[in-house]
Amino acid sequence: MFKTVNLNRSSVKDLPSTQISLDFALAEFSSAIEMLQAAKKVNDKKLALGFLNHSLDEYRHTNFFIRVLKYSKNSNLNSNNLKFNSILAYSKGFLRDDGYLFDKMSLQSFSVFIGVNEQQALKIFQKLKNSNWNLGNKLRQDLNEIIEDEKKHLELAQKNFEVEFVDLLKDEGRHASLALEYSKKNFPAKIYYPLYIRFFLFNKIRHLVGGNNTVKNLISYVVSFLIIIFSFPFRYSLSTKNIDNNFDLNKKNANLIL
Amino acid sequence: MRKIIIGISSYFHESAICIIINDKIVDYLKEEEITRVKGDFKFPKNSLKIILKKHKILENEIESIVFYEKPFLSWSSITFFSLLKPVKRWKIVLNQFQKFWTGSLSFSADIKKLINISSDKIYYNSHHVSHALSGLIFSKDTKKDYLIFVLDGVGDGETISIYKKIKSDILTEYKCLFPDSLGLYYSAFTDYLGFNVNEGESKVMGLAAFGEPIYKELILNEIIQYNEGELTLNQSWFAYSFDLEKSYSNKFNAKFGSPGTPDSYKNINGKDFKRMADIACSTQVALEETLISIVRYYILKTGIKNIVFAGGLGLNSKAMQKLAEMQEVDEFTVPPSPGDSGAATGAAIYGYMLSNGFKFPQISILPGKNYDESVKANIFDTIFKKIEQSSQSNTAVANLIESGEIICTFFKDREFGPRALGSRSILCAGNKNEIIKDLNEKLKKRESFRPLAPMMRESKAEKYFYIDDNNKHNLYWMGITVNAKEETIKDYPMTVHYDKTSRLQLIKSDNIFYENLFIKLEKMNINILINTSFNVAGDPMVFDYVDCYTNMVRMGLKYLVTDTGLFEIEINK
Fold it and tell me: Do A48 and B379 lie within an 8 Å CB cutoff?
């Protein structure tokens, strides 16, 4: 995973919250897509196969978090924004619609970017593992009063996740070292180290800004409040009910957006 | 010089592009196929780039580019509606103003970033007329008069449009406006049942077979209000007109109990499953009865008995069967891609009509082309090993299927609807029940209550299914379900759904690969194949051979048949 998730102390405490599980699933999915696109676009056969295998690992990790998501408990579980839907990768900023990383970066920048972010991901996973392994206890406390059967189900799920999680950590370590080794071997130090520092800092800033929902929400409330205030006097004069939108082969009319 | 028309649908549901060169639809591409993000609705710049390159299209050859809806009408209809109650609907207001900059209003600007074309060659068609044209082209005879029903969530502010196609004109008979939408009614129940909106509707349809319509009267009395051709929905049950995250109101919880979760569907004999199935069944039956009432009313009113149905609700193949079986209907057509992505075809046809008058271009049900050159490093031979030449591949495939293997197909002509029609399919024998169960639940990870579709030769179909000649053409693209005969239920039980219907695909005799394959299989007592789309659940259908590889590895499948032979996957770690 090289599209990392913002994981602060409170979100770790609440694991496995639906939001964090969903973010991890989307981050893994987006990483799979980026690697798949790189595999299709790179000219070198060996690199193409390497990227392809990396992509397959990321798809496997996506499935892991989708399964975690299904066991996550959250009061807003039925919100459309908390169900795994790959299209959310755009709206949550994991995938950008202005192009893939491989299109925008040189091969050397791409390799360093992957390496730096895989290292970050590895740290997050270690953090997640240490906290997340209270998953069963936390959920058991919450669910004791609900259904006994579901409690047993969660114990079983926890065991399964634990086994998979160890594999997942191995993969992340392998991805990071492969990308960084490749970059170190093939690019001179004066190119490698500035890129390394740039992506490391960029990553930190991205997490800080990307995860700040309070700022995002505040902007949304202010904008919508202003729109509502300004449009209020005109609202009854706005209507599209009488606009002709029928079949019409007149080119002049067809040229209109209304 | 060639005359090229490009039709585009985008910014709302799956983006797609349709290309007409001279008098023929020559290619069709969905953005999700390239980006691998299911339901990708972004402006289809990736597909546009590669489709222009593939067909070596020069800018001066482009006669017109047609967008499938009227951008300002589409935006303003919802915006103005939400401003009527701006405090309650503030989330929609905000969303609409964000869409002002990122939605379909920027279509012209987005096109001009990629193609140097003057504004007078960019046209806009009515959303529902695009649907209507994409349906009409698949009717049995486009010269006949038709009654066209377009029903979807919402498009250009319209939720139902009923047109009369008479000679060379399409006349509007009725329009229903947002928020009264049967499409959004079905999506709200999909949401309540715990499935993703725009993706889970087919799950609701499959689930419905397991339930009883115990809430049908409630829905028809309190939620859907239909009278004399006019439809309204009781909005107190819905939240989609003011909430972006939830489609139904708290009245659902009060009446039907807690909403569905993944756990609701784990035990098919459980109480919660039964409760969900009853709700799904009631939703489906109420929809079918309302559609029948609407169609019956307008047949009586206009006297036209040939029906075309398009729009997202056309994907409900069970409801389409009910309409096709109506005694009042002489001929029924629902196109292979009735939803928004198919409307790109309608937009292209409209562009063709702007230049040529009211006539249709040629079309096939597999208009998409192969794009293997999109993979730069040629790694095909590294990830696949040829085990049989193309001349012998159908014999080898038949033997593998007979021995219980699952085969993936990847032929050069691509489907353009959401359903795999043999080009991008996963196949297995229709009478090997354990294999089919594994394919459905373990490999494709579909819910156990969802059926898989059968495919067979047209010439043998009467023996196994009840087929009506007037509607048979829909079965070439799985447009409607049909009732199975006892023999099918006995010999091929896994090809028949719980309600004894199947979404059958008929194979014509001019499909050489499949004709020969079935001749061989029939000698092995396999008359029916299971045909499911070649993709992991939640992903788009495969686009190139790299996607074939990743999907096969993810599902643990071994064999791939293409135009050039039969191949076995080689895992390279």
Answer: yes
**How far apart, in Å, are the Cα atoms of B152 and each of B29, B140, B155, B245, B247?**
22, 23, 7, 19, 15
Predicted ipTM?
0.91
Longest dimension (CA), chain B: 69
Per-residue pLDDT, averaged over A123-147, amounts to 50
Instruction: Catalogue the E-assigned strands of B287-344.
Output: 306-310, 331-333
Q: What would the two tokens of residue B535 be? A: 């993709």
pLDDT tens figures, A46-103: 889 988 988 998 898 888 778 777 666 554 555 666 778 899 998 888 898 788 988 8
Q: Say yes or no to pLDDT of A162 above 70.
A: no
Contacts of B156 in chain A (CB under 8 A): 245
Mean pLDDT of B15-42: 96
pTM to 2 decimal places: 0.88
CA–CA dist A78, B261 (Å, integer): 8
Instruction: Tell how strand B407-410 and strand B384-389 pair up.
Output: unpaired
Decide if B572 touches A, using CB distance below 8 A: yes
Q: Distance, in angstroms, between A197 CA and closest chain B CA?
A: 30
Half-sphere exposure in the Cβ direction for B89 (13 Å, CA)? 23
Summarised one tens digit per residue, pLDDT across range B124-156 is 999 999 999 999 999 999 999 999 999 999 999
Indicate the residue type of B481.
T
The shortest C-alpha distance from A40 to chain B (Å) reads 4
Picking from B41, B245, B374, the nearest residue to A79 by CB comes out as: B245
Q: Following DSSP, what letter does each residue of B557-571 receive, concatenated?
A: --EEEETTEEEEE--
**R_g over Cα of chain B:** 23
- Which residues in chain A have Cβ-Cβ distances shorter than 8 Å to B123? 251, 254-255
